[in-house]
Amino acid sequence: MKRQHSHILAACTLYVVLALAGCYKPVDYPVIVKVLPPPIPEPETARSIIGKSIENRPMVHTVLGRGTDVTFIMAAIHGNEKAGIPLVHRLEKFLQENPEMLEKRKVVLLPIANPDGVASNSRYNARGIDLNRNFPAPNRINSSRFGRIALSEPETRFIFQLIRQYAPDRIVSIHQPLACIDYDGPSQALANRMAEYCNLPLKKIGAKPGSLGSHAGVMLGIPVISLELPKSADSFRSERLWQQYGPALVAAVAYPYRAK
After folding, report:
1. Minimal CA–CA distance to 220: which of 185, 260, 182?
2. If DSSP codes are grouped into helix, strand and coil, which group holds residue 207?
3. N or C: more exposed end of the chain, with fewer CB within 10 A?
4. Which residues sit opposite 59 in a β-bridge?
């Protein structure tokens, strides 16, 4: 037993001497590292209150992405046309879950453009003004129903401010109940593309006096789409709305854009 212990001690001593002399090097075993794919970054999201309605309700808009191609999508400028509200919220969720859609893009969302009208289930705002007739445009009519002057209403001014701030390449406003895709300005190609992704027919209604289409589409030359849902869409649940009309909104966001 003593002899065995002496052999082990001698061997250990030899390894130490060799190592100190630089004659022995331990075996370098390869280090196995599990390489994970880089995570897809979360989309840049900013939510802010751009102002308040006549009855002091907040107007909240969301901006997703940081690209130069800008799509502005809004709903409920007429407060009794509410089906677009959950549709816009569902689009926000989709874009957050699919951040690759936002590469080189920015999407501005305004789900409730007429909060007082939504609260009272009225087409008009709290002063009885049709907000979609209150924009500056050559065909505007001054009246008690359309406003005595353009941009007389805070809600309209906030939408006007968003258009000036973000300079959108296209605008989609969700309405009811005409069940069609209407368009103003240089937007027929965009309307055709969106029609490929839903069951709504194209129908050129014509720019109404002082409407968003007259202001942004005709006067400013921004493609403006009125996505007119059917009245029956009021009874649709969020998921059904998304299945039927969500792809058309995604098509608008993904539409080819011009270089800036």
Report:
1. 185
2. coil
3. N
4. 51
DSSP 8-state symbol, 131: G
SS3 of residue 175 by DSSP: strand
Neighbouring CB atoms inside 10 A of 144's CB total 9
- pLDDT of 10: 44
Written as one string, the DSSP assignment of 11-80 is HHHHHHHHHHHT------PPPP--PPPPPPPPPPEEEEEEEE-TTS-EEEEEEE---SEEEEEEE-SSTT
Asked if residues 231 and 177 have their Cβ atoms less than 8 Å apart, the reply is: yes
Q: pLDDT digits over 175-226, tens only?
A: 999 999 999 999 999 999 999 999 999 999 999 999 999 999 999 999 999 9
Residue 18 has pLDDT above 70, yes or no: no
Name the token pair of 156. 């309209």
- Helices 84-97 and 238-253 cross at an angle (nearest 10°) of 60
- What is the pTM assigned to this prediction? 0.81
DSSP label of 174? E
